[in-house]
Design a protein that fits this description.
The protein is an alpha/beta fold and 581 residues long. It has 20 helices and 15 strands. Among the domains are: 3-94, Gyrase A, domain 2; 447-572, Isoleucyl-tRNA Synthetase, Domain 1 (Orthogonal Bundle), CATH 1.10.730.10.
Length: 581
């Protein structure tokens, strides 16, 4: 049940009736007619922009449309008033029964309340994390992992067929550097003193990898030239790092459906097939690019290269896919990887990148547009940097990693649930200061505590009712007389509950899971406010030992809050708290 959708349908029915009567002209497009919560709750329960968006195409004054529409809407039993405001906005108030019906629906559907078929089973690929397999995941990867995983769950919630995917960047030179670094740890395991030159990875996390390599091959590579051991150690080290990365992701509750290796693109014809697809469309040519902006002529040498005509699909400049020496550019395998996604039949692609990939957005979108002939949209979400603070100071380095704070550092400090929720309390394209002390603080200023405490408070009230001998099982609450919920504070909670299905669809449509975290905080605030009113107003106390029927109704309301909080936290990958310690 989506009450906002239901009332919008009512608005559309009234508009169609006005067309049939001749009040409105025929041929109007109602697609932009919306019904939403008013910015100021004092103005009503819902507002519609119908008169404002139809005035120009109808060649009428918006207020005239609004007044005629208000008359029709007021005839519906659910609408207690329809008031025209300003130039033509229309504010609606609904009867109490409408909000009580929402609560009944939540109790019947449980955590499925708010689910929809908006996605229509369409296949969507969400690629996230995709860190180089050269070490443990750092705090920046943590944000991308949390964001991507929550987004995938959100899309699943509204009916998409979601594949979570990790692209293993194991085809570039950084994997050779990893192999050389592991070789040094291998020599160290044999008792040799080694020095980590610039460019190698000095983190302690490679110590057990070097020891494992020794256990596997003994001294076979000691004193041997690089060409003897490079490929073997590269494969061994990559596998070891991916095992470490999988463990890191598991500690955060992230599980991928597919790991795709960049290396699998080379020597298999996949890159060639992707570029042939573009060539067949007339988008590959030999040419010379203009010098990059800011470069002086003597800093740049014009070279003929194989170019992708990405400007035909919205890019600023055409992009090289093959260098003048015949080697592929970094962009070529990325094109091939997305070509593979398109060929796998996905209806929509989402890439979650770090902030340093901002310059890659237009070229990648151009490539997917060209490969799919505009049929497969690609949305790229950039996650801005995270700064960690502890004891008032920036927390900068992990000894184990050598140069950065790891995902495990964060999870070990505050736990996976707190980590996930906190990282979703900002929009992904905004920088985030993560205060580890604040994340564990038990106060309203800590959003994860505030939401979890709301659920724990409800669970505590349910236990209290049971101790008083009042039944609060699901069947009893589903049969509660919800007409007893007639106080403005109680109805305010019901109205916030009613917003959940609408909020979920907006969050999914915009690929913005942080909206769920924001909503849960607002819902928790309504619950806490109602609870505190009960301290001075006995009629609002959740548990009233002298009236089982009143307690049933109030606990039914509280239960709906717990249900929606649990559903929302489920999308975010957070376990609802049953009690707070």
């Amino acid at each position: 049940m989506n009450l906002f959708t239901d009332i919008r349908s009512l608005v559309l029915d009234c508009l169609n009736a006005m067309v049939a009567e001749g009040t409105l002209p025929e041929g109007l497009d109602f697609a932009n007619v919306a019904v939403e919560p008013p910015r100021d709750a004092a103005h009503g329960d819902m507002a519609t922009n119908a008169a404002m968006v139809l005035a120009k195409p109808a060649k009428m004054k918006p207020r005239d449309i609004a007044e005629a529409l208000a008359t029709k809407l007021a005839a519906d039993a659910r609408v207690t008033s329809a008031e025209v405001a300003g130039p033509g906005f229309l504010n609606l108030r609904l009867d109490q029964g409408s909000w009580q019906a929402v609560l009944s629906n939540v109790l019947a559907e449980g955590t499925n309340f708010g689910r929809s078929n908006m996605g229509e089973g369409k296949k969507v690929n969400v690629e996230y994390v995709s860190a180089n397999p050269t070490g443990p995941l750092h705090v920046g990867h943590t944000r991308g992992a949390v964001f991507g995983d929550a987004l995938a769950s959100l899309l699943d919630f509204v009916g998409f067929d979601v594949t979570r995917e990790y692209y293993i960047n194991d085809g570039g030179g950084q994997v050779d550097v990893l192999a050389r670094s592991v070789y040094l740890r291998y020599l160290e395991a044999h008792g040799q003193e080694v020095a980590f030159v610039d460019g190698t990875y000095p983190g302690d996390y490679l110590v057990p990898v070097g020891e494992a390599l020794k256990a596997k091959v003994g001294d076979a590579y000691v004193g041997q030239p690089e060409e003897v051991w490079l490929e073997e150690i590269r494969n061994f080290a990559t596998d070891a790092m991916m095992d470490l990365i999988r463990e890191d992701l598991a500690s955060l509750g992230v599980k991928m459906d597919k790991f795709f290796s960049e290396k699998s693109l080379y020597g298999t014809g996949l890159i060639e097939a992707a570029l042939k697809s573009l060539d067949d469309k007339g988008l590959i040519y030999e040419g010379v690019l203009e010098p990059p902006k800011g470069k002086k002529p003597d800093d740049w040498e014009p070279r003929e290269q194989t170019l992708f005509k990405s400007t035909d699909h919205g890019d600023d400049v055409d992009r090289p896919v093959k260098k003048s020496d015949g080697a592929w550019t970094y962009f070529a395998p990325d094109i091939a990887y997305h070509y593979d996604k398109v060929e796998r039949g996905f209806d929509m692609l989402i890439d979650v990148f770090g902030a340093d990939h901002g310059g890659y957005v237009k070229r990648m979108k151009a490539a997917v547009s060209a490969l799919s002939e505009g049929k497969v949209p690609l949305d790229i979400k950039l996650c801005q940097l995270v700064k960690l603070f502890k004891d008032g100071q920036e927390f900068k380095m992990s000894k184990r990693a050598g140069t950065f704070v790891t995902l495990r550092d964060v999870v070990d400090a505050v736990g996976p649930d707190v980590t996930r929720f906190m990282l979703l309390t900002r929009k992904n394209d905004q920088g985030f200061d993560f205060d580890l002390d604040k994340a564990l603080e038990q106060s309203k200023d800590n959003p994860v505590f505030y939401v979890q405490y709301a659920n724990a408070r409800i669970c505590s009230s349910l236990r209290k009712a049971e101790e008083a001998g009042i039944a609060v099982d699901d069947a009893t609450l589903a049969a509660a007389d919800l007409s007893l919920l007639d106080d403005d504070a109680q109805l305010a909670v019901a109205k916030k509950i009613a917003e959940w299905p609408r909020l979920v669809e907006i969050a999914a449509r915009t690929n913005e899971p942080h909206r769920v975290a924001f909503y849960l905080y607002d819902l928790a605030s309504e619950l806490h406010g109602l609870y505190h009113l009960g301290k001075t107003n006995e009629g609002l106390r959740f548990v009233n030992e002298s009236s089982a029927s009143a307690t049933h109704a109030k606990m039914a309301l509280a239960k709906t809050v717990s249900i929606v909080i649990s559903a929302g936290l489920g999308i975010l990958g957070v376990t609802p708290a049953q009690e707070m310690r």
